Model the fold of this input.
Amino acid sequence: MYKSGKAWGQTEEKADHLMDKASSAASHAADEAKQKGEHAKSSTQDAMQSAKSSTRDTMQSAKSSSQDAYQSAKSSAESATDKASESAKESKDEASGFLQQTGESVINAASGAVDAVKSTTAGAVNAVKNTTAGAVGSVKSTLGMSDDGSKR
Done:
């Protein structure tokens, strides 16, 4: 029995030794799994941060492009408005010049008509005066009167 007790003791010792090895391997595997998990977590956080940063940069770039497009459209609209305003002003100035020339032509024509009426009226007045003077002279001659109105 001594031999069997000795064998039993050795078996127990080997079992304890194997249990210690298994426990150590399990602990080592748990530590390694924990490290890999922390590394995966860190990598995931880095990837998320990179995606956030990339998204933020893309949004900023899109915003900047939108603002540039807005400014360009605004500038084009202002330029078109300025050109239309200038064109309208030029058209107004041309119309104003045309109306001024037309007004001057009407004034000149009216002035010429007034002068013609004055001349015609003066001629008619002179004709009436001459005719009247001639008629008065004929009446006086018929009545035998002198130019001063006394009888001859």
Summary: The chain has a mean pLDDT of 77. The two ends are 211 Å apart (CA to CA).
